[in-house]
């Protein structure tokens, strides 16, 4: 199934030269998108994926996952996910999610993010959100050695476990780039990979109304929405997204809840 090009990447030397989180990630994303213009609009690569409905139909033998507050076999579920935080915008986002009673899944970066905002990581976990990994330094995993892949995945796992008491079971590869080596190493580290079906391309605009429209235009049952709380236009869009999707009958869940009673299996890739 084609992958989206929505996430962001840059070489390590470029990272050191760039300042300002939003500006840095915006530049990476635009460069990545430009590189993919000659390919299908839905992505730059292909990989076998497992749909949430398939996961739900294959619960772990003798140990099905908990449903939480909703059974997505019956309900019209959708998952709200945020990449590349925590950031200075994350506290406000958490306030919105708490007010709206919506759980989310956070794919966190280590360097300059988990390191800088450890209390926000703790708060995410304490308030019932799923805390997952987006690697340590946002390196493209398909372009680095096995040892470097392990480092990119192990460091945020260890940092998140120290802060929350729970090691992540999910990760999102930067730019959605993955391959057999990434699958194998993810499996060794107990990680399943999670992609997405809805992208606001919020790295291209600060227009909250446009971000909202893009999400609503693409959303459907079992959708996994990709947003980035590092951008100034994204968090202001979230209340409207939530209200509009609730009005359409959607129920917000974390990614593990979306798969229940199935569980995300290490080494597998999940995408609606």
UniProtKB/TrEMBL annotation:
Pfam families: Polysacc_deac_1. InterPro entries: Glyco_hydro/deAcase_b/a-brl, NODB_dom, Polysacc_deacetylase_ArnD. The gene is pdaC. Its EC number is 3.5.1.-. The keyword Hydrolase applies. GO terms for molecular function: hydrolase activity. This is Peptidoglycan-N-acetylmuramic acid deacetylase PdaC. It comes from Streptomyces cyanogenus. Residues 1-45 form the signal peptide. It comes from the Bacteria. Residues 76-253 form the NodB homology domain. Keywords: Hydrolase, Metal-binding, Signal. Gene3D superfamilies: Glycoside hydrolase/deacetylase (3.20.20.370).
């Amino acid at each position: 199934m084609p992958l989206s090009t929505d996430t962001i990447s840059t070489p390590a030397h470029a990272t050191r030269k760039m300042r300002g989180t939003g500006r840095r990630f915006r530049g990476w994303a635009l460069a990545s998108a430009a590189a993919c213009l000659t390919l299908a609009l839905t992505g730059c690569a292909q990989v076998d994926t497992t749909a949430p409905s398939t996961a739900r139909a294959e619960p772990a033998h003798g140990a099905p996952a908990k449903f939480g507050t909703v059974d997505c076999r019956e309900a019209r579920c959708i998952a709200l996910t945020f990449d590349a935080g925590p950031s200075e915008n994350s506290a406000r986002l958490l306030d919105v999610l708490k007010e709206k009673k919506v759980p989310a899944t956070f794919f966190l970066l280590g360097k300059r993010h988990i390191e800088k905002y450890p209390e926000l990581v703790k708060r995410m976990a304490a308030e019932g959100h799923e805390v997952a990994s987006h690697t340590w330094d946002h390196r493209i995993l398909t372009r680095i050695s096995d040892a470097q892949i392990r480092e990119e995945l192990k460091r945020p796992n260890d940092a998140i476990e120290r802060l929350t008491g729970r090691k992540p079971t999910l990760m999102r590869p930067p730019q959605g780039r993955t391959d057999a080596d990434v699958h194998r190493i993810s499996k060794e580290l107990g990680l399943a990979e999670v992609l997405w079906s809805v992208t606001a391309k919020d790295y291209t605009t600060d227009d909250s109304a446009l971000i909202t429209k893009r999400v609503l235009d693409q959303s459907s049952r079992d959708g996994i929405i990709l947003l980035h709380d590092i951008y100034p236009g994204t968090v202001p869009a979230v209340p409207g997204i939530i209200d509009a999707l609730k009005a359409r009958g959607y129920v917000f869940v974390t990614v593990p809840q979306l798969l229940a009673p199935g569980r995300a299996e290490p080494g597998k890739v999940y995408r609606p």
